[in-house]
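For the sake of clarity, the format in which proteins appear in this thesis is described at this point. The record quoted next illustrates the convention:

___
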Amino acid sequence: MDFWRFVYISLACITLGHEAAANMNFDVHIDKLERVGDTGEYFTYNYSYEKISEMKFNMGAQVQQLKELDDSYTVKALVARADLADGSEFEVMMDLQKPLCEWMRTIYKTYFYEELAKVSNFPHYDTCPLPVANYVMENYVLDTEPYSEMMSEGRWKMEMMLMKGDSVCSGISVLNTVKPKE
């Protein structure tokens, strides 16, 4: 579901401040975006994703949610960092799992809702359970440049998943490389 892709990239920008070096600027390169789980039972979607520059992306999505989602589902978010050297192991920086309704009232409300409300009809943070619905996001431009001063170099792995028990209903995995500007 492209919503999770958007949320995940946004979460990445928020959390890349680990060990920030003062007055250093970094370039962020999204190396890999990968869907996780079999979303067909829960969502259908069409999305657009256009790379405007190395640090700017334009996104749009049409998402049909096929099942009502309540607190029997959880949202799991993982952020890990590794050195730039190939083969270096990832160190977990954040591993968070919350029931869906709590996620909506806390993380979604604090970090995502205001931006999403400007470009989509994604649900209000007080909406839970989430009813079957069609969602649209148009022309959302994600610019990572403003975050470059608070980033640290390395390889970053971020995962965000909608879970039902131990099963992944839908999710996204993103690998980024953060390097000093040349």
